[in-house]
Amino acid sequence: MHHWTDLKISNWYEYKGNEMRDKLDPVTFEILRHRLEEIVNEAYYTMARVSGNAIITEAGDHEEAILNANGDTIMVGGGIVEWTQCLEEAGRYISREYQDNPGIFEGDQFVLNCTEVAAVHLMDIQVLKPVFWEGERFAWLNTAGHNMDVGGINIGGVQIDARERVQEGLSMWGLKVCERGVIRKDIETTIKNMTRQPELLVLELRARMAANNAAEKRLLDTVREFGFDKVMAIFEELPRYSEQRIRQRLRKLPDGEFSAVHYFESVIESEGALAVRCKLVKKGDTIKMDFTGSSPQSKGAQNVALPGAKSNAECPFLMMLAHDIPWNYGLWGVIEWVLPHGSIVNPTDDAPVSINTPAGAGYVTIGCVLDCISQLYLCSDEKEEAMASGSNAFNNPMLYGSDKEGNYFITMMMENLICGAGGMYHRDGDDTCSNMWTTKPQVTNLERAEQLFPWLYLWRREALDTGGPGKNRGGTACMNAFIPWKVDEMEVHDNGMGDTVRLANGLAGGYPAPNVKQYLIRKSNIQSMFDRGEMPSAVDEIEGVVEEYGVNTTLPFYKDDVYAVYFGGGGGFGDPLERDPGNLANDVINEHVSVDEARKLYGVVFDRETLRVDQEGTEEERQNIRKRRLEMAQAPKLANGGTENSGIELMNWAGVISLNVNDAGERYWQCMKCDHVLGDANADWKDYTATWHAPMRHGQPEAYAAATEEYHLRECYCPNCGGLFEVLNLGVNDEDVVTFRYLG
Amino acid sequence: MQYKIGVDTGGTFTDAVVLDEDGNITTGKHLTTYHDFSEGVGNSLAVAAEKLSLSLEQLLGNCVAFAYGTTIGTNAIATRSGAKVGMLTTKGARDTIHIARGLSRWTGLSEAETKHMATTIKPAPLVPKKLTREVRERVDYSGSEVVALNEDDVRAAVAELVEQGVESIAVCFLWSFTNSGHELKAKEIVQELYPDLYSCTSCEVVPLEGEYERFITTVLDAYVGPATLSYMKSVSGFLRKKGLKPRLLLMKADGGIAYSDSVLPVATVHSGPAGGVKATQTFGRILGYENIISTDVGGTTFDVSLITNGKETFNREPRIEKFSTLYPTLDIVSIGAGGGTIVHADPELKTLHVGPQSAGSNPGPACYGFGGEQATMTDAAVILGYINPDYFNGGRMALYPERSREAFNRVAAVMDMDVVEVAQGAYEIINSHMSDLIMGMTVRRGVDIGNYVIFSFGGAGPVHVAYMGATLGAGKAIIPASSSVYSALGLATSPIGHTYIKYDYRTLPITAQVLNDNIGELHQRVKQELAEGGVHPDNMDIRVSMDMKYLLQINTVNMTIPLKDEYTEDDAARLGGMFDQAYTDLYGAGAAYPEAGRVISSYMIKGEGIVHDFAPNPAPLAGKDPGAGNKGSRQAYFKGDGFLETPLFDFAKLLPGNEVVGPAIIEADETTIVVPPGYNASLDGFKNIELVRIQG
């Protein structure tokens, strides 16, 4: 088996005279690289067209790969990027374990979804097909997609009540579902009868097989066209190429340590909040991802098993550092891992894991690594690559029951995928765009949903004030409301996070996005409103018994009840007091920010009648807020070292703080907002800042704020001008996080 | 003598093609006149008229069919210069076009671009929220009214929007395709209040499920509507004044031409490439090719479309900019590959890449001498001896071959390769990228490429065409003679065509009655439209298809069924089996899963008919000897052979029936045809070049 440590690092130049260059000249290399990309795309589009599952066809929750004979990735396509390494682990496992018994033959296809080996959770079902040339296996094709129900203790795959891995449902370790081209009836029948959606599962398995078949045909055509040796040569060369490219990119970025922590609510009430902590150390052309300090494993199903944890962590790595490099095992060679055993990011094999994505440690791991890589970029010359977290606070409702024709249905609402993107160094985060960790996601039209399922929407809109405040605002999230339609009842099984903790972190002084809010209005007057020709556009326009409830709940949902949810948007970037009032005027006109919150969060004062910015009032309000900040804050830990500003800038972080050196060679931190010298760079810059442990409800509209004392925000200000450097999302007694340590 | 005329107003030139009743083709070309497009139309027609020794008035006076192609709608969207649109929508659905199903961040990007999260960005909305008004009304999935239309809301909203200066109104209600009453009533109110204001409804523009796509298509119609209508009025007024008698026909993006006063403005958006595909279809029919891969290589893109069994294929959810729409267009797939495509090398890793970036036309390829320093595919063609620097664009544009060499020298130095080796390598790489796109299209549509012939047009296509299909098994290529006015030729020769769609979601089995009701309604409508266009019933070519899927699936497969005046219960009962077969043909054995149940969601009818069948007429063939066209020779590079002294031919002087044996290069005004060793190029009676691989 290949492993990255065995790789010889080389390039075309060094290859001159080498056997490989004879086998594969640069022109053929480029032609075959493009061809392999096309083959993977072929599988992607076949899967997207054939699947019967909205999570695949619409949300884009699938990914395809070409693996070598040993199961290592050679080319992975787009799709749901957080599975990339899982696709490889599955190939390696089957190659290793089943070579002799039951054997691997031409025409076979294997199905695997077990989280111990290679899946984020059991719903992610992979089908792998070995590819042969003249009797020799030279490749695997792997098509993976999210399925709905896989049996288990809860409906729809998301096992809130599971306390052991075995309660999570159908776990397949590489079953040969197709043998020498023939679907095995015994296997297919057994699998399908272990779920609550047998027909859908069969259709889904066939979709994966069809995708593998389409890709296999083109791969074999390629072997016929270029010869077996050339295809083998590209299989060897492409990972080398990717590894060199990623090392090249890393070398151009500064060295340093970048840390982040993200909290989320445990489904086990007694556990309170759980945290994923990541320290990313970038040195030369390598990175280390160290998750030491993450919470011990949970009793509930929000843990992420090792293959899933790595795959999730690699997701921002791929999309932020390797987006233009072929995705394959060559990239893993630059990463060193520290994932403590027994923690929520590497639990014991018996720990349940099904909710880790999208409402647990898996998804949060992505946010943590995103923060770290963004901090790395903010210390570099490529600051426009940095991005605050997109929507992370959401509810992911599964609905099930009898549909309008009396057939049993299970489905997942997808509005949580209409995310607000995180604010960036140079622009706002996109409003209601889509999940950033899938390359091509889309949400079902509400007409399609109403056609297929028994409900009627009251609204699906952009939700006011849901973007994290910042100089560059976090994107607005979505809100929606619906009622059962043509049925008397169904059940809602919620899973989510962010109703008490704020999950989409801001960057460089931007605030995290608000909390998620959800309501059930029991015994509403909606039908009589309709009869009167009235249609509500907000929860408070509907009469009934309003129940506000937390994420991770199962509730009956009756005729005349109204279900309404407001999601959290993207984190903000930069101090909101620096947002251009003109941009805020557009935000108000376009209903992204309310006039009240514009004043409270951004210090921009509007004339309510004309919606014109009151320039003087704004200036005064902003000065007052800066003053208030310093009044609330504790004095800096360290006093200013007294260095004068006469040096040159060595680097700056986010255009907010610079690291300067003077003629005497002394290094010091300086506030770029007011040029105030913070102090000697031998200490962390935060030691020179005024800090306020703000309540979690600060920096968001009251309407969304959760009443909790369990967490707080830690805000760091320039002690001179009151400018906001950073807002961190922390537990009450949590130690601080060293956001970045620049090492040149 | 009677004439059929096609005029295509493009970004640079306005092209005219005149086809007389004997089948003779006369062309005219003139610069497009942006201050008044009619002038360019008149000028190009005057050029053609002069060749026929006619005045413009005489030519137009004897014209029996005049088809026009315009990019006005496409340009209005590209430059964001369309109308100020007001939108009326169902309460609760205002943000539909803003949320855009979350897809507008990435749609329209290449695979590589979608992976670069930090650079994906949503487009600015076409209608801001302040110009969108919600009205109280609601219909459910079955078409039942949930909340009655509040007409006062409509009146108030329209008045407010007009107050704000809107120039058109798009009426977009949920489920209007199952119950159009509310939308039509709202439109009636708009028209009653403001009779001169352009308004449209989503149920009339595209009566299909999917509110985002339906709404945005309707908004686009309102966006391009006022400008398109006034433009067409001006052009047709001009032509009438000059003596044109028949009503003006307009090319639509679905490849049909129809009377301009009955065409939805949004239907003309992206109609530009349709003319070329229709010309390919027409010549395919004349030359006896049923299955064609229509390819167009310009400066920046490579466009491919398939014609199967003589019929074009449709894209049912075409993208316009970053909007995903529902008005069907011809299925044309593009990649960034053309004459301006940039060749670059990684200095550290010594890898060679071609595109997708393009130098465009300004600065363009290095050899243009406009300051471009990057090596492009046009530069590669100069170095390889394919393009004659002294006869580019018919000798009207001087090229600087030394700049091509300088640009490629820089790449070659990085690669530690010879300059010709790099140029040849880039040529091979781009040919392979083109082949990959063609292959992907045929595989995805479940057709065997071996049964297809490639048609190649666009300035840069014939330089590459010999290698596009070579490895794929498509052994023959046609380079049309009139490729410089190809779209206009398509306009002059296209049949009148109409496409209609009807939504009716049902699970199989269905009765013959359902089938007859749905198809009967569409059939009557299309027959009537064609008859009104002057098509004789015997000349009507009507195809019917249905969108079907297995019950649990999301996406549908379009299945063609035979057209009948009356379907029987047996016909209805056979639909399931037909669908399983069509599905298996597309996705392979074992993919179909009938146990899940089968659904029909909508019906589509496409009717076409020729009114005046002036078939282009071939000239008599001369001998095979191409001697008359010989214009010397030069060194050109062919892989495996190196530089060969290669005979050159002047296309203008070659005669029908001549045969050119490769290696050879044929130089035409707007393009260069590379005939590699082992290939034969023969000219048919229209002077189309048939390029065939005879060995190797």
Instruction: Look at the structure and give the mean pLDDT of chain A.
Output: 91
How does CATH name the architecture of the domain at 82-221 in chain B? 3-Layer(aba) Sandwich
What general form of chain B does the structure show? globular
Mean pLDDT of chain B: 92
Residues in helices of chain B, as a percent range? 25-40%
Main structural class of chain A:
alpha+beta
Distance between the termini of chain B: 49 Å
The fraction of residues in strands of chain A falls at 15-25%
Order of neighbouring strands in the sheet with most strands of chain A: 2-1-5-4-3-6-7
- The CATH topology of the domain at 82-221 in chain B is given as Rossmann fold
CATH class of the domain at 82-221 in chain B: Alpha Beta
Radius of gyration of chain B: 26 Å
Q: How many extended strands of chain A?
A: 30
Strand portion of chain B:
25-35%
The strand count of chain B comes to 35
Structure description:
The complex is a heterodimer of chains A (744) and B (696). Chain A has 744 residues and is α+β, with helices and mostly antiparallel strands. Among the domains of chain A are: 4-245, no CATH class; 599-734, no CATH class. In chain A, 28% of the residues lie in helices and 24% in strands. Chain A has 17 helices and 30 strands. A seven-stranded antiparallel β-sheet of chain A has the order 2-1-5-4-3-6-7, sandwiched between helices. A five-stranded mixed β-sheet of chain A has the order 11-10-9-8-30. In chain A, strands 15-16-22-19-20 form a five-stranded antiparallel β-sheet, covered by helices on one side. In chain A, helix 3 packs antiparallel against helix 8, helix 3 crosses helix 9 (228-252) and helix 10 (306-321) runs parallel beside helix 12. Chain A is globular. The two termini of chain A are 37 Å apart. By secondary structure, chain B is of the alpha+beta class. In chain B, strands 13, 14, 15, 20, 23, 24, 31, 34 and 35 form a nine-stranded mixed β-sheet that branches. In chain B, strands 3-2-1-4-11-12 form a six-stranded mixed β-sheet. Chain B is globular. The chains are: A alpha+beta (744), B alpha+beta (696). Chains A and B meet through helix 3, helix 8, helix 9, helix 10 and helix 13 of A and helix 4, helix 5, helix 9, strand 22 and helix 13 of B.
